């Protein structure tokens, strides 16, 4: 019988132990620096900031800890062995790929390349199945963290589309410290197994240890504490941040499950190792390209409405946020004054009493919200969608992967011949 409760307790204990590791707080400092840069960027664009830096770091620690528990549980469940992962090879490859494009700093690319090199050339000395299982489990963990992040890590921006139109959008960026416990296999004499060792069922591990075992010895596993980091970057133009994250999490989760199944099957069917290795990096790249294209080419969500003013985001700890005004709401009337322009909104705020009613349109329903100004401050705290004449905006750089572009060219030629 599998010791589920003991394994969960072990995973939680590993996360707690990571809080006493200096490397954990170094990663937290890097995460904080990334969010600080996002905060400064938002202040330059809108003059205000929509999120609290302290709150973002606290959420990163909380969600990263959840991810560490999930990741440790899954890695232990399949029986991964840190000694056969070849991290000394994967990291240099990841850094080299990062020099081509920052988003290639991902184990899906580096792990897939290292695994394929092992299959084709017999080098480096890694266990292909173990490497690809690690890639799959890390991405399953990432998909769960993306799904539960909600609006956390969503920064409003003004985006210039390919046709020159300025629209509202959200830059989605999350960074999570990931405290993990990885297993290391050690051969010990069968008669010298210490007491209190956690008993595992006969079918475990799903990933057997490669290498010979001396007669009279058995494999035992010790736990090694490792602190990693996960990151997620995306953009929401046609979707709300929550919808965009749910879609990304679903697609990433499906990709991860397929890769995990191929990696586990490749233990018994060696010809699947090359397939799984290519799915690791080509599948990940295809996922990014298709998802990004669909989002950027669809009709933008955050554009000026026919009536009223649309809210792109609200500023943290302001009357608008406290009143429950949300991204995508359309402001119609404030203190019985019609607001169709920013000038009309400014005038209505100036004339409004300390407590007033604002009428909004949400999901085709007109609702009213009671708003209360902060003491001696007449500021509503909304960031509006761009009108199209803004001076500061973001342009997306061309981000093409040559294999993807080549595949499209071949596909286009074949279609023309048909």
UniProtKB/TrEMBL annotation:
<feature type="transmembrane region" description="Helical">
    <location>
        <begin position="166"/>
        <end position="188"/>
    </location>
</feature>
<dbReference type="InterPro" id="IPR036034">
    <property type="entry name" value="PDZ_sf"/>
</dbReference>
<keyword id="KW-0812">Transmembrane</keyword>
<keyword id="KW-1133">Transmembrane helix</keyword>
<feature type="transmembrane region" description="Helical">
    <location>
        <begin position="131"/>
        <end position="154"/>
    </location>
</feature>
<protein>
    <submittedName>
        <fullName>PDZ domain-containing protein</fullName>
    </submittedName>
</protein>
<feature type="transmembrane region" description="Helical">
    <location>
        <begin position="218"/>
        <end position="237"/>
    </location>
</feature>
<feature type="transmembrane region" description="Helical">
    <location>
        <begin position="12"/>
        <end position="36"/>
    </location>
</feature>
<feature type="transmembrane region" description="Helical">
    <location>
        <begin position="87"/>
        <end position="111"/>
    </location>
</feature>
<keyword id="KW-0472">Membrane</keyword>
<feature type="transmembrane region" description="Helical">
    <location>
        <begin position="249"/>
        <end position="265"/>
    </location>
</feature>
<feature type="transmembrane region" description="Helical">
    <location>
        <begin position="56"/>
        <end position="80"/>
    </location>
</feature>
């Amino acid at each position: 019988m599998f010791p589920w409760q003991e394994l969960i307790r072990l995973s939680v204990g590993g996360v707690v132990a990571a809080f006493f590791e200096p490397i954990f707080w170094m990663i937290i400092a890097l995460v904080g620096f990334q969010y600080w840069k996002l905060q400064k960027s938002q202040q330059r664009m809108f003059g205000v900031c929509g999120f609290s830096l302290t709150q973002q770091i606290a959420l990163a620690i909380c969600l990263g800890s959840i991810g560490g528990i999930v990741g440790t549980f899954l890695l232990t469940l399949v029986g991964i062995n840190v000694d056969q992962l070849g991290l000394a090879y994967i990291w240099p490859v990841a850094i080299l790929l990062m020099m081509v494009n920052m988003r290639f700093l991902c184990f899906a690319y580096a792990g897939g390349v290292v695994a394929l090199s092992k299959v084709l050339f017999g080098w480096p000395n890694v266990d292909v199945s173990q490497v690809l299982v690690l890639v799959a489990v890390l991405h399953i963990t990432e998909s769960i963290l993306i799904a539960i992040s909600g609006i956390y890590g969503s920064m409003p921006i003004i985006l210039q589309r390919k046709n020159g139109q300025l629209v509202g959008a959200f830059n989605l960026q999350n960074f999570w410290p990931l405290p993990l416990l990885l297993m290391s296999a050690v051969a010990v004499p069968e008669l010298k197994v210490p007491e209190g060792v956690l008993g595992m069922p006969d079918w475990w591990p799903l990933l057997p240890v490669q290498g010979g075992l001396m007669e009279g010895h058995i494999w035992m596993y010790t736990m090694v504490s490792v602190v990693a980091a996960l990151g997620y970057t995306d953009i929401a133009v046609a979707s709300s941040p929550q919808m965009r994250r749910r879609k990304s999490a679903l697609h990433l989760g499906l990709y991860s499950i397929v890769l995990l199944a191929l990696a586990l099957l490749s233990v018994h069917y060696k010809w699947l190792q090359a397939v799984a290795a290519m799915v690791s990096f080509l599948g990940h790249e295809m996922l990014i390209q298709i998802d990004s294209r669909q989002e950027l080419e669809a009709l933008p969500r955050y554009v000026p409405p026919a009536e009223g003013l649309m809210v792109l985001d609200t500023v943290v700890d302001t009357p608008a946020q406290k009143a429950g005004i949300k991204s995508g709401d359309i402001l119609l009337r404030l203190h019985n004054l019609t607001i169709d322009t920013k000038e009309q909104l400014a005038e209505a705020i100036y004339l409004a009493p300390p407590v007033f009613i604002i009428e909004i349109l949400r999901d085709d329903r007109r609702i009213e919200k009671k708003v209360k100004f902060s003491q001696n401050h007449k500021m509503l705290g909304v960031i509006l969608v761009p009108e199209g004449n803004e001076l500061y905006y973001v342009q997306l750089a061309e981000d093409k992967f040559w294999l993807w572009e080549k595949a499209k060219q071949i596909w286009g030629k074949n279609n023309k011949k048909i």
